[in-house]
Amino acid sequence: MNTGDFYDFQGLLTGEEREIVARTRKFLENEVAPIANQAWADAEFPHEIVKGFAELDIAGLAYRGARSLLTGFLALEMNRVDPSLATFFGVHSGLAMGSINRCGSEEQKQRWLPAMSRMEKIGAFALTEPHGGSDVAGGLETTARRDGDQWVLNGAKRWIGNATFADLIVVWARDEADNKVKGFVVEKGTPGFTATKIEHKMALRTVQNADITLTDCRVPEANRLQNAHGFRDTADILRQTRGGVAWQAVGVMMGAYELALDYAKQRVQFGKPIAGFQLVQDLLVKILGNVTSSLAVVVRLSQLQDQGVYRDEHSSLAKALCTVRMREAVGWAREILGGNGIVLDYNVGRFVADAEAVYSYEGTREINSLVTGRAITGLSAFV
């Protein structure tokens, strides 16, 4: 049992599910943890680690019949070790594979998903634009124009994780003919597609986020996601993955908590470990309270998803609530470490920085509050 899972929520998993989580945890602790800081400092993606991820056989588990509760705990485990590599995996397995699974034809699923499950093909998801973040639903500027059996894409995307090296990039564009948002799978090396790495990030530095430019980029009709008919379909994918970001937030604060707890037991001041001082214990308990209450929320969220009664407002409340608690928790963890909390060697500083990205993506706190507020009042406060 993880130190941070104080109420043993993982006990809700089956024996087989716990074995999958344990195998994943062992890989993360043995293979990912030792390289996480250096990859983060260098802002470079450790491509050699993909083979180990592939051998876990956990990519696309949600589309192979696994419970949301299992995929949630896997997300938690990844984020308690390295939120950057967890984000890489979430983009590939959640957003990219999720788009193809939700909006692709049977032929398209068979063409792409097996190789993506084996991580022989890595995916990316291109929705956000330089001028469109929270308002991307109505303000999508990237266009698609039908030309015979091809589509011509023009526009720009920003903050696209994995895009510098992905084999398959799901690009969302507005059809000039009917103004509907549609999805296209752009394959690596397609003329007119360029991805430029975003430099100087202060969070999730290992993730290779990119600015994408599409200039008369031609995609065959066979690569248009056949069941993506409008932004409602795009939103359906985001609803599923937004719950995953709430799980991410729990993993981030749990990782910071466990690091702070270990540090407090070892750091000696005034003749004894600082874990023996009242104010330090108070901080540890406050962090653990945030972790435990947030874990309760996401566990219930996954149960609702597994029961098929999961709604937009459920994931929005979870994402907003858990990321706010995460921000508090990692700050308290850094406080326990004092000056060492800002030194990368002690890990906690990386969690503090990475938390800022998790707090922002997949819908800001404000937008998710409006989604939840609309559900509870019946009145929309959107502009």
Automatic annotation (TrEMBL):
GO terms for molecular function: acyl-CoA dehydrogenase activity; acyl-CoA oxidase activity; flavin adenine dinucleotide binding. Keywords: FAD, Flavoprotein, Oxidoreductase. Residues 15-120 form the Acyl-CoA dehydrogenase/oxidase N-terminal domain. GO terms for biological process: fatty acid beta-oxidation. It comes from the Bacteria. Its EC number is 1.3.3.6. InterPro entries: ACX4-like, Acyl-CoA_DH_CS, Acyl-CoA_Oxase/DH_mid-dom, Acyl-CoA_Oxase/DH_mid-dom_sf, AcylCo_DH-like_C, AcylCo_DH/oxidase_C, AcylCoA_DH/ox_N, AcylCoA_DH/ox_N_sf. SUPFAM superfamilies: Acyl-CoA dehydrogenase C-terminal domain-like, Acyl-CoA dehydrogenase NM domain-like. Residues 229-376 form the Acyl-CoA dehydrogenase/oxidase C-terminal domain. Its cofactor is FAD. Residues 124-217 form the Acyl-CoA oxidase/dehydrogenase middle domain. Belongs to the acyl-CoA dehydrogenase family. This is Acyl-coenzyme A oxidase 4, peroxisomal. It comes from Kutzneria albida DSM 43870.
